[in-house]
């Protein structure tokens, strides 16, 4: 019986002894197989963080509704990381080159926004801004790779927005496979250079209890990403909630405040509920005045908060005499009785 052909780079493990079978001489491909004992005896470096606790090496997908402030958030982070100092005015970050592909912006708009954020400070030399780039299959992957080769100490690449650079899908691929393949090109760049790559994306119009389900497109996008972040902000409010989960990041929610005069997002202390409750009550009140006898799910979808948050808020407001609930759990303003 002939021995089946195996790729030369595959390093086999003997099934009985557990001893590793050496790779063929001359193979330059990376090792991809280990015995369990070998793996447990190895020491790996900690992940490199662009923004500790939020953005680690690998691919992070940042999603949010249009005009919620994603670009302001990432431009501020890019400036902070390129210069070193404080990200979101609270998180210590190490300095290093940053590439920001601002593919929906103009030089004039970028200058205007940076002038507001910097407030008279000098712009960091380590931040490179680009307003046009080929799609990934048509040379974009190579172009970003060259920049990374020329900046070996780079800490972050931002692509705003991913749709501008992902390119067309290969014929015959399902939507899921097309999304996963597009993410795979970015993942190659991130993994081969050990760098954080942030992709800006949009969310679905319909809300969801699970913030991961709000990411537009198929599950292939969030599934291929190392981390997913969703930024939410109720219309007319300055505060936002950043939902975060990932392979190297604990699932969490962070309360943020946006200073529109300075163009700066600030990370607030404590859980989001400590900062959004009063504004949530105001948003709920406005909605039920216009739409009496509404259930929490409908209210949540309309004002851009989670159903659980709205449900608890409505219960507290009913206990405080601000709302009245009927037997089916629908709410109306007490003054509408």
Protein architecture, described:
The protein is of the alpha/beta class and 337 residues long. It contains 9 helices and 15 strands. Strand 12 and strand 13 (264-267) form a beta hairpin. Helix 7 packs across helix 9 (307-319) and helix 8 (296-303) crosses helix 9. It is globular and about 75 Å long. The relative contact order is 0.12. It comes from Acrocarpospora corrugata. This is DNA repair protein RadA. Pfam families: AAA_25 (PF13481).
Please outline the helices and strands.
Elements: H1 36-41, E1 49-51, E2 55-56, E3 58-63, H2 70-83, E4 85-87, E5 91-93, E6 98-102, H3 107-118, E7 127-130, H4 140-150, E8 156-160, H5 175-193, E9 196-201, H6 219-224, E10 227-232, E11 239-246, E12 252-259, E13 264-267, H7 273-290, H8 296-303, H9 307-319, E14 323-325, E15 331-333
Parallel strand pairs: 3-9, 3-10, 6-7, 6-8, 8-9
Antiparallel strand pairs: 1-2, 4-5, 10-11, 11-12, 12-13, 14-15
Helix pairs in contact: 2-3, 4-5, 7-8, 7-9, 8-9
Summarize the structure.
The protein is α/β, with parallel strands linked by helices.
């Amino acid at each position: 019986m002939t021995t089946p052909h195996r790729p030369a780079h595959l390093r086999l493990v003997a099934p009985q002894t557990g001893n590793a079978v050496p790779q063929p001489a001359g193979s330059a491909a990376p090792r991809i197989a280990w015995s369990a004992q070998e793996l447990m005896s190895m020491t790996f470096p900690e992940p490199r963080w662009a923004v500790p606790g939020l953005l680690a090496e690998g691919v992070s997908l940042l999603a949010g509704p249009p005009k919620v402030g994603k670009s302001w958030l990432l431009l501020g982070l890019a400036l902070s990381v390129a210069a070193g100092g404080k990200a979101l005015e609270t998180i210590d970050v190490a300095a290093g080159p940053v590439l920001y592909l601002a593919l929906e912006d103009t030089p004039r708009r970028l200058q205007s926004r940076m002038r507001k954020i910097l407030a008279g400070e000098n712009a960091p030399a380590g931040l490179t801004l680009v307003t046009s780039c080929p799609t990934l299959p048509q040379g974009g992957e190579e172009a970003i790779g060259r920049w990374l080769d020329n900046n070996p100490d780079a800490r972050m690449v931002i692509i705003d927005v991913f749709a501008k650079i992902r390119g067309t899908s290969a014929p015959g691929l399902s939507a899921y496979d097309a999304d996963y393949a597009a993410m795979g090109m970015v993942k190659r760049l991130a993994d081969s250079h050990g760098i954080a790559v942030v992709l800006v994306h949009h969310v679905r119009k319909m809300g969801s209890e699970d913030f991961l389900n709000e990411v537009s497109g198929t599950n292939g996008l969030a599934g291929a990403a190392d981390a997913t972040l969703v930024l939410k902000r109720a219309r007319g409010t300055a505060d936002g909630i950043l939902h975060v989960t990932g392979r190297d990041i604990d699932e969490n929610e962070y309360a943020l405040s946006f200073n529109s005069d300075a163009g700066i997002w600030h990370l607030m202390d404590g859980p989001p509920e400590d900062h959004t409750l009063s504004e949530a009550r105001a948003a709920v009140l406005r909605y039920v005045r216009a739409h009496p006898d509404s259930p929490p799910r409908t209210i949540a979808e309309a004002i851009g908060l989670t159903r659980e948050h709205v449900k608890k808020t409505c219960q507290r407001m009913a206990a405080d005499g601000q709302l009245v609930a009927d037997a089916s759990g629908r709410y109306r303003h007490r003054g509408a009785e």
